[in-house]
Amino acid sequence: PPLIRLEDYRPSAFLIDRVNLDIVLDPHATRITADLALRPNPAGAPDGPLHLDGDDLTLVGLDLDGAPVPGADYAVDASGLTLHRPPRRPFMLRVVTEVDPTANTKLMGLYRTDGVYCTQCEADGFRRITYFLDRPDVMAVYTTRIEARREEAPVLLGNGNPVEAGPVGEDRHYAVWHDPHPKPAYLFAVVGGRLGKVEAPFRTMEGRDVTCAVYVEPGREDRAGYALDAVIRSMQWDERAFGRAYDLDVFNVVAVSAFNMGAMENKGLNIFNDKYVLAVPETATDADYANIEAIIAHEYFHNWSGNRVTCRDWFQLCLKEGLTVFRDQEFSSDMRSRPVHRIGEVRSLRARQFPEDAGPLRHPVRPNAYAEINNFYTATVYDKGAEIVRMLRTLIGPAAFRAGMDRYFADNDGRAATVEDFLAAFATVTGRDLSAFARWYERPGTPRLSAQGAYDAAARRYTLHLAQALPTEGPPLVIPVALGLVGAGGPLDGATCASAADGVFILDRIEAELVFENVTEEPVPSLLRDFSAPVRLDLALSDAQRLRLLARDSDPFNRWQAAQDVALRLILAPDAARTDAFAEALGTFLDGEALADPAFAALVLALPTEAEAADALSGDIDPDAIHRARHALRAHLGRALAPRLTRIDAALAPAEGASYSPDAASAGRRALRNAALDLMAAGDPQAGAALATRRLDAATNMTDRLAALATIAQIPGEAREAALASFGERYAHEPLVLDKWFALQATIPEEGTLARIAALKGHPAFAMTNPNRVRALIGSFSMGNPTQFARADGSGFALVADTVKALDSANPQIAARLLTAFGSWRRLEKNRRQAAAEMLNGIKAVPGLSRDVADILVRTLK
Ligand code: B3K
Ligand code: ZN
Questions:
Q1: From 234, 373, 408, 466, which residue has the greatest number of CB atoms within 10 Å?
Q2: Which part of the chain is the Peptidase M1 alanyl aminopeptidase C-terminal domain (predicted)?
């Protein structure tokens, strides 16, 4: 597929200032009349033809300033509509199109899900509604009239504020919405359908009264309360933390069941995957509640970082996504435990972004070329993008950061901005040159930071040598390294380092030497505290030194990291004596602190994943060997820690009749108790299965029930099959719960899983047309079952490849996303690598592949 390049960016030849839409909803023939106020762009070059983007549209009418455009004056092809000789002055274009929302399986543009009409326009779906300059630097004020049969769509929602509504004849009605804020087409949305709602008022710090509402399938209103509460808390927090107030009279969130991603920040009308809205204790886990809170916040925060200030072009995607992830992470950290949340952020960065950055799909946080933009909504753009913003704050300090953010919003409000505009705001308020820091946006790959220390007892001096290395050629990056020294009894607070006075050293050269004075004993360095930069750290420490950090460091992140590092080394090179020592250190840690901070303790007990172990290997990967080694380590620890785990289990048992609360402290207690159960079961599968079965029967919420089932699912036998069957029956009519059940079965690391998945594809609740179902069954398998996905006989690869082929024409975005599971195929040992190559080439041989899949395929095979 042809590449679009950043260097080729040119301002649009024409602008569209106002858009008046009249949308008459119909299941098969929805008619859209678009009145577009066009004018030549003074900053553009409006001397050629005018090309309006269009995709899969039927053109019904075309008028220019009220007169039909003669057929000879325009042409329509697969990419859109071209006016050969557009006026060189402002003019009105009326475009009438027709679309079939029921036949729209791509879930881009206007489509129907469970009978509800909804839209998805980012990145380029608006062109599937009408012909348009579908690019984010063309910003217009929209007025939308929606008409439908009242019975089919009693609720009609659009962007902005409601202006009027009323009947049309006997059985139809209409509503008009007006959005005063100019916006790019990707933020356009309409919804029509039978929906129930919950709502709550909010008064902004500017005194505006806002009605917030969450719309869901009728009868599910009781499941929308948590999301609504998260909306209110997000509004409060953005005022407090960033001085950003909401700017419309209504804020609506709509949950739909078929959605390509998590959610979408359309102006005033966020549309959500129902997985990230609906929650009651019986069906949602603690993780679901946390995700709902985070994603509601994320989409709401886009109202400023994305909507009021949008992106000039799609190369700038991190400008809104990285920044908004950073903002939602800060929000969740304030709502929950900051260190625990930070560990979660880093775990997901390492699970998703590090492998991406090390494989064939690697790209800079700001890519410089793309074939299909929808393939660039990646962990790199989102999560590494957020890490860059975090580093910027570390670099300039929180007060200057806040001042820079205020400046960015003030200078760019109502504009389509670039990464340069973002950095310029911080350069202005600090007077600093940020051009070296800006390299983070351009350089792909995860840097390595290596460290070596030497202690001079006589001089009471510790010297630390730091060096950075990047996988690609170029000048050094600016890496903030938060650090400290830890002695046998705890942090050495008396030690001083002139170049890291505030505990942060800025490594902006290839290498540097730091000198600590007044170091009273040989220290262990604690580097990259709070994970101050998205790099890989090479620091040779003994287990004993690492375990000192676990016991004594003041930085919770590095305490957790130390335990992870010891465990990782034991997975890669098993050793019984060292495992005993590790178990003892964990035991001491649990005795001292488990009950004081259960959420943190649960993370310490969670060993690095098989994917992390694979990622840390230097040679070819054999997933079976990694699985065996990790399992053996867990079994060993489970046996060694059994008495402690039993005590934790008892101490954290909920009081009889206690009701469920999703708050972080309660969730932390459940997390630790369930982690203890799982580790016990690894040590003693028979006793573990029995205990897990009792816990399954006693569970009063989905968190505990699913955790118990997950433990049982790892232990082959009749008990497992019975437990799985009864769970499946109990939730036969709860698709979001069945997704958990599908995922759990898809990740069983056994040969029989392939047959299980084949059978589950025939389950009445499974549907290839619903992305959540596909992600639960096939996505979980490919991303969360390394031994079976990468089977040497190729059958695991085949399962995923067949799904990609089967889905490609119906929903190319989901097909392409599934295909990214092959990203690390070249690192596998030879037989598996060959099997993967065969499957990839098999997909390549399919005629008429979508651009989405072809793009991922070409890059994966390169
Ligand atoms: N901006 C959307 C993602 C759109 C993805 C288009 N393929 C959701 C978000 O990041 O908030
Ligand atoms: Zn976003």
A1: 234
A2: 543-861
